[in-house]
Write a structure and sequence with these properties.
Blueprint (H helix, E strand, L loop, with lengths): L5 H19 L3 H22 L3 H9 L8 E10 L2 E7 L5 E2 L2 E3 L6 H13 L1 E13 L11 E13 L7 E7 L14 H12 L6 E2 L1
Parallel strand pairs: 1-6, 5-8
Antiparallel strand pairs: 1-2, 1-4, 2-3, 2-7, 5-6
Helix pairs in contact: 1-2, 2-3
Length: 206
C-alpha cells in the first residue's frame, strides 16, 4: 500500500487536533486558535488539490466530536466465479457494493444492506476478508478511514440500480471494467478471489 503524502498527513493531523480541541475546550481564546488550525488545514488541502477552500470547510463542518476514523464497508459477492460490481454514479466507474457505515448497525448488517440497496441482491456476510487503511490507498481520503471487506454469500434477489448506481453486473476477474479505485482497487479484488479459493485464508489487515 502507498503511504499518504506528507502534506496530507500534516493537514489531517491539524484537523484532528482542531476538531478534538473544539469538542473539549471551553476557553474562547483557545477555541479561536483551534478554529484557525482548522482553517489552515483547509487551506493546505485547497492549495495542493485545487479544490475550493469553501468546499473543504463545508466538509469539515459536518465532522464533530473527538476525531476518529470513518468506516467504509464493501461486499465481495461471487456467482460462478464472477464478481459483483456496481457502476457508481459519482464517477461512472465500478466498485464492489458498499459505503460509509451508519451509527447503530452491526458491521455484517451494514454490508448486507449496502449490497441490497446498491444492487438489488440479498446476501449474507460470511467472513471478514480484509481491513484496509484507506489512507494508504490512492486516491487518499481527506479523513482517516478504514475499509472492511466481507466475503458474502449470494441468497437471491433481482439485480437493479438505485440513486447511487448506474448499472449492476457480474464480471470475470480477468476482464474487469474501469474501477472506482477509491472504493475498490485490484489489490482488494485479488484478496477477495484468494479467500474465495481458500476459505481458510486469514483476514488481511493494514
Amino acid at each position: 500500500m502507498e503511504s499518504s503524502p506528507k502534506w496530507l498527513e500534516l493537514a489531517r493531523e491539524l484537523f484532528s487536533i482542531s476538531q478534538s480541541g473544539l469538542t473539549y475546550c471551553q476557553n474562547e481564546y483557545d477555541l479561536d486558535r483551534y478554529r484557525r488550525m482548522q482553517e489552515i488545514s483547509a487551506e493546505m488541502i485547497a492549495d495542493k488539490t485545487g479544490l475550493p477552500k469553501e468546499n473543504i470547510t463545508q466538509i469539515f463542518s459536518m465532522q464533530s466530536g473527538y476525531a476518529t476514523p470513518k468506516i467504509d464497508v464493501r461486499g465481495a459477492v461471487f456467482r460462478d466465479g464472477k464478481l459483483l460490481l456496481v457502476q457508481e454514479r459519482a464517477d461512472d466507474n465500478w466498485a464492489m457494493p458498499g459505503g460509509w457505515a451508519d451509527i447503530g448497525d452491526m458491521p455484517s448488517a451494514m454490508v448486507e444492506r449496502e449490497v441490497l440497496e446498491e444492487s438489488g441482491l440479498k446476501v449474507r456476510a460470511a467472513k471478514v476478508i480484509a481491513v484496509y487503511d484507506a489512507n494508504r490507498v490512492e486516491p487518499m481520503e481527506f479523513f482517516h478511514a478504514y475499509k472492511i471487506i466481507f466475503l458474502c454469500e449470494l441468497l437471491g434477489g433481482e439485480m437493479r440500480t438505485n440513486h447511487e448506481t448506474l448499472a449492476v453486473d457480474f464480471f470475470d476477474p480477468a476482464k474487469l471494467p474501469p474501477l472506482s479505485t477509491a472504493r475498490t482497487d485490484e489489490h482488494m479484488i485479488a484478496e477477495a478471489i484468494a479467500h474465495l479459493q481458500d476459505p481458510t485464508r486469514p483476514a488481511y489487515f493494514d
